Prior knowledge:
The chain has three helices and nine strands; from the N terminus they run ββββββαβαββα.
Amino acid sequence: MEQDAGFRIDFPMYSYLMEPGPRPGALRDPETGLLFVPLWTDRERFDAFVECFEFGGPISGLQIDNRFELTDFLSRFQNPAITQVAIDPDALPELPFDLLDIADVVELVNKPKPK
C-alpha cells in the first residue's frame, strides 16, 4: 500500500481495456465533463461497476499488481484531456467521483520509500 495526503494505493488494482485493441479506456464524469481513468482496489466493486455501467463496446478486465504496472498503464493515456484518476468509483450515477491528478498518483507510486 502507498499512502499520501488524501488517497492511498492498494495493489492489486483493477481497470479495463477497450476492445478491439486492447487500448486503455477512460470515462467522462457527467457532472463536470472531465475525462478520467477509473481504478479499483476492490475486485468486487470493479465487477459491480462493469456489470452496471454502459461502456459502449466490449472491454477486457485488467489487473495491476505493482507500481511499475500502474505507471505503465497510466502513461498510455496520451490524450491531453485525460489528466484525472478516480480510485474506487461507484457504479451509481448519482454519486460524484473523487478525481485525482494522474501526475500526483504517478508521483506517489514512484516516490522512494524511506529507509
